[in-house]
Amino acid sequence: MYSGMRTALAALLVIAGTPVVAMAQRHAGRTPSASQARAVRLEHAPDSTFVTESSGEVALAPDTLPTFHSRSDSLSSARTLRAAIRDQKLRVVVSIDRHLLWVVEGSDTLHSAAVNVGMGRLLEYGGRRWTFATPRGVRTILSKSAAPKWRPPDWAYAEVAREYHLRLAHMPERGAVTLHDGRKLVVRDSVAGLLMPDGFAPLPVDEHIVFDSTLYVPPLGTRNREIDGELGNYRLDLGNGYLLHGTASGTARRAATTHGCVRLSDDDLQWLYDFVPVGTKVYIY
């Protein structure tokens, strides 16, 4: 653990349910009575409680420290925690390592939820690479929408292509792709299809487009690149492709399973959609 992070985490937000101690004193085998009292109180508080400490050397116990991939990652987490404490307005706070979300106003926890966060994996395919992690930092809810359609990013097609050992190519918005048998793959009226001697034959919009051992990525804006139900009932946009959204199954358990977004169960997502307005800050640490 970086020595700088120990200082940065002092007097910061602490999530209830995790033992807390004065880090330096614990390492020396001594725990001051004041810190011990805080540790006991926080350790037995429920996960649904979002707890802040305004003074004292408070940090997570060594066996429950967050997992950081770099010094900048740890510093970003510390800065975000400090900002979440200073902000007394209505805000959303997300713990990547504990897979929990809180809606807080002042020092009051209004709502808490289990969430799925980024899996922290790397995908490399077709000369491109993607990191599936939920970024730490401060974001803002830019917009909200009901019954959202998912427009799969390129990585969704890269995953399928790698799994089935297919080449990956993009369909053009205009023009045509000539297949090995002479048929042409084109877009007509926002639908991908084949140009046949007797006219245009649309392809199923809910299936991947695979010809000649190649998975073709349909252009954004086509019906072939829209999927209903994958994001749940609502979407809260955080910008740069990151969302608070639901799941196809309607449930979300505490886990690191997403490609970067924060997923919630139907009931929790409904609560956020109803009570958290556009413009609300989201602190992810």
What topology does this entry show?
Layout lengths: L2 H7 L4 E2 L4 E2 L1 H5 L5 H11 L6 E2 L7 E2 L10 H16 L4 E5 L4 E6 L2 E7 L1 E3 L2 E5 L2 E5 L4 E4 L2 E4 L2 E2 L3 H10 L3 E4 L6 E2 L5 E5 L2 E6 L2 E4 L6 E3 L2 E4 L9 E2 L5 E6 L2 E4 L9 E4 L3 E2 L2 H10 L5 E4 L1
Helix pairs in contact: 1-4
| Largest beta-sheet details | 5 strands, mixed
Tally the helices: what do you get? 6
Overall strand count: 26
Helical fraction: 10-25%
What does the overall shape look like? elongated
- Provide the low-confidence segments as ranges: 1-45, 53-65
Distance between the termini: 16 Å
Strand order of the largest sheet: 7-6-5-26-11
How large is the share of residues in beta strands?
A: 25-35%
CA radius of gyration: 23 Å
Derived from helix and strand composition plus strand pairing, the structural class reads alpha+beta
- Which whole number gives the mean pLDDT? 81
